[in-house]
Amino acid sequence: MTVLTATDRSGTDHAITFRSDIDVTLMDSMATDASVIAAARVSTQGADSAEFWDMDPAESKGLIKFLARNRHGTPFEHNSFVFRVTAPIFVYREWHRHRVGWSYNEESGRYKTLEPAFYLPGTDRKLIEKPGSKPGNYEYVPGTAAQHDWLVQDMMEDCVNLYTRYQDRLWRGYAKEVARMTLPVNIYSSMYATCNARSLMAFLSLRTERDDAVFPSKPMREIAMASEEMERIFAETMPITWAAFEEFGRVGP
Amino acid sequence: MTVLTATDRSGTDHAITFRSDIDVTLMDSMATDASVIAAARVSTQGADSAEFWDMDPAESKGLIKFLARNRHGTPFEHNSFVFRVTAPIFVYREWHRHRVGWSYNEESGRYKTLEPAFYLPGTDRKLIEKPGSKPGNYEYVPGTAAQHDWLVQDMMEDCVNLYTRYQDRLWRGYAKEVARMTLPVNIYSSMYATCNARSLMAFLSLRTERDDAVFPSKPMREIAMASEEMERIFAETMPITWAAFEEFGRVGP
Amino acid sequence: MTVLTATDRSGTDHAITFRSDIDVTLMDSMATDASVIAAARVSTQGADSAEFWDMDPAESKGLIKFLARNRHGTPFEHNSFVFRVTAPIFVYREWHRHRVGWSYNEESGRYKTLEPAFYLPGTDRKLIEKPGSKPGNYEYVPGTAAQHDWLVQDMMEDCVNLYTRYQDRLWRGYAKEVARMTLPVNIYSSMYATCNARSLMAFLSLRTERDDAVFPSKPMREIAMASEEMERIFAETMPITWAAFEEFGRVGP
Amino acid sequence: MTVLTATDRSGTDHAITFRSDIDVTLMDSMATDASVIAAARVSTQGADSAEFWDMDPAESKGLIKFLARNRHGTPFEHNSFVFRVTAPIFVYREWHRHRVGWSYNEESGRYKTLEPAFYLPGTDRKLIEKPGSKPGNYEYVPGTAAQHDWLVQDMMEDCVNLYTRYQDRLWRGYAKEVARMTLPVNIYSSMYATCNARSLMAFLSLRTERDDAVFPSKPMREIAMASEEMERIFAETMPITWAAFEEFGRVGP
Predict the structure, then answer these.
(1) Which ranges constitute the DSSP H helices of B57-194?
(2) What residues of chain D lie within 8 A of the CB of C106, using their CB?
(3) Contacts of D199 (CB under 8 A, 6+ apart)
(4) How many C-alpha atoms does B75 have within 13 Å on its Cβ side?
(5) Chains meeting B at 3+ CB pairs closer than 8 A?
(6) pLDDT in tens, A105-134
């Protein structure tokens, strides 16, 4: 994390922060493999399936595999994960396109003075587009150290410049929603995002990069970083469900 | 609960059960008023709003009222309720029309031999359509004791008859999904239904009968019975949210 | 179609109708392959992609295949089909579980006296469950002509009996929603169902029986009959999209 | 529309365009008041309701009013509007939060070199936040001509600067998705957005500013501009439905 102090045109100093991480924190959850089993068993055992809610799910591992392999999706919906996410705006632009089984509340540039925190690509972020890449299947290669340094310097100049001008506009009385119109898409914002295992698996299948998936996807690196952290939490919380997702090619059931 | 023993054409006895209740049991939940406050505050406080997740929500009662009165719905979505429901099929026919923010898994007449449990109107169930009632605004009046007795007797005959014929067809080798085709819509089935406070309030606004609601509804009595039980659980779990729903006319935010 | 005249206990005659078909009629549509292309091309061509809206989609067949194979689903949503369906209640019980991208309005047993039309399995409907079949993977075999005749006779008795008792209850003043409680799940009802190509393909992938599908499904015959008719209409209206769905294993994109 | 020519660091000229409009164009539609009537009537008339599909809806105006007043929403879903929208990114940030009954495809900054078109507030756009305004209920007042001129000049400098640096990064081989990270949220993008009358009314109730609404909203001006144009098209296409929406306080049914 780099911090630069910058002075706006009104003479006020601002500590401009640069980060390269995406933060995903689990706020709350209600999620067990057992719930998947009980929900699936209601079809064949009716109300008595409730007993599975508190049983060891390891004994019904085969049922969860069956559901995942055959894409019986609904039993994976009776659970919930609430994440707090801190990420640049260009990540939310993709995230919010997930409509089904997702709930969102995000920081508002209309109601709040935005904080001076900006995303910069880390040193391991591939920067260069491979010549001849095609839309839908771009390939990227790492930049040289010099390319990374130049870019980061260039972006930092933009962010410092834009944020101080933003603050100056606020100081002149312009409305927040007006003053922010030229803030860049790499400014950080925060949100709560709530989903269930089914909508999460749909997300993971599109937003992680795995060549061994049945339907491989080429997500943007920054949303993949968020996905990987959610997947880690998912694997810990619902290990049997996650293992089945993994085993059967990461197809959202 | 009345139980009649009936013999099917193959000579097997069945204990036919008659009930007048709708069972709603909370299986699991992740639901606090505090989550509503944190989710709303992310718009003005960003990631720092997380501190509200563990604070006493009573201090922010005014914010929840503001959200309910002005129909800011999304902060009410970061929570979850899983109910197990046992109700006659004609209740599910209405319930499953709620598509958004609801997840379902139900007992299957294709995979399971259905149990001989049937719904009968209780003595307090209004039975008679007021002459001149109009669709969308029917009014019902109670039946006499004689009318209730006659109906219940008549329905019991049907159920005994149909269930023994169903069993006989199974005994003859017909597929479950075929044998059940003439089972009546008052046969009981079970499901898990998962929702959040927002989708639950949308349900309650339509499926409870309250003349003091801003948009009064005339729900079928049997689905209102389920609603009333869910509302009781909701009021216990998220008391501030429920109170705001009640105060501002029971409009789903 | 068989029609039987039956007299209820109040002395009124009713013409009880028996059918074995599922009716699906296209009421309206706004659906072209060109819309898929324009919607996909907006990502790379912006507002100029509008020109594809009126162009011959055959030239962009490859793009539609690419979208279907890689499960890029959203371009398939900018179109609409309105179907009128007439089917027995047990078919709607499955249909209404499709929540996303589907809109429904159905005939009401609370507001309307239901018509005496009942479903009977046709002679080509497999009736018998193969011994040893397992839930999720039942196998059925045809019944003999005698088995079919016996069943149809048995079901007709039930329907005549139940419908005349329903009418008698109405005649005695019982509310429609009460009188209908022992009507069987093979009574016909009508609905309008509106979907788009994406939600339709999700439906078809689950509700048609095709051994060559990537994820084969074992739908109930009666909902498969509806699916087959919707698929026929879909193939006529959006032939390139349908062909890509078929070519890539009938996986809903 | 103002156009400035700017030279990037690689020596290439770019014509930077500044606009103050939001473009909404109807691409296709399948939308009639008659469909609302037929869909509502299926509950009381079954399959025969189809005759209303082609009848003059003016005769059933009262039914549409009844549905709107009592918030019977589903009959308003059997229709479809496809809009092409051209608007700055900060408008999509709000728009895409509408999840239900909306389909989107948008221009991609990953796959496409973004065009140099930027939004500037028009002379009638209120610029200044009234002192003492509170989140959720901000009030804005117009700026003076001098305030408008200063702001527009300030924003234009940002946009010219940022766009030429974006082009320079592309020229140096950086990936589009990397180079665009400091482009501002007032850059224009295009999308197709498909909805139905019900989801459109939900949008209009939140995204138009009408003091006479039952639940008044304070939308951002730029999304209200898009809403007003969609409402004009809606009123022309489904005049009876629109009039009922207007008459009963603009509450989404």
Answers:
(1) 61-69, 89-95, 145-171, 176-179
(2) 42-43
(3) D77, D98, D100, D101, D102
(4) 26
(5) A, C, D
(6) 999 999 999 999 999 999 999 999 888 777
- CA-nearest of B144, B232, A162, B220 to C177 is B220
Q: Which two tokens stand for residue C153?
A: 């006779």
Contact (CB<8Å) C96/B100: no
Q: Among residues 25-84 of chain C, which lie with CB inside 8 Å of chain B? A: none
**ipTM of the prediction:** 0.96
Look at the alpha carbons of B202, B208, B211, B216 in this order and tell me if their dihedral is positive or negative: positive
CB pairs below 8 Å between A and C: how many?
A: 17
Q: Looking at the partner chain, which of D71, D100, D135 has a beta carbon nearest the beta carbon of B100?
A: D100
Q: Are strands A80-88 and A23-30 parallel, antiparallel or unpaired?
A: antiparallel
The contacts of residue C197 (CB under 8 Å, 6+ apart) are C31, C36, C76, C77, C79, C81, C234, C238, C241
Contact B28, B82 (CB under 8 A): yes
CB nearest to A186's CB, from D92, D129, D182: D182
Tokens of D41: 């009537």
pTM above 0.90?
yes
Q: Closest chain D residue to A158 measured between Cα atoms?
A: D182
Smallest CA–CA distance, residue D29 to chain C, in Å, is 7
- Structural domains in chain A, sorted by start: 2-30+81-195 (3.30.1360.170)
Neighbours of A140 (CB within 10 A): 18
CB contact, 8 Å: B21 with chain A? no
CA distances from B54 to A235, B33, B38, B58, B236 (A): 25, 10, 9, 12, 18
User: What is the tens place of the pLDDT at every residue in C89-130?
Assistant: 999 999 999 999 999 999 999 999 999 999 999 999 999 988
pLDDT tens digit string along A12-49? 999 999 999 999 999 999 999 999 999 999 999 999 99
Q: Is C180 tagged catalytic?
A: no
Q: Do B173 and C109 touch (CB under 8 A)?
A: no
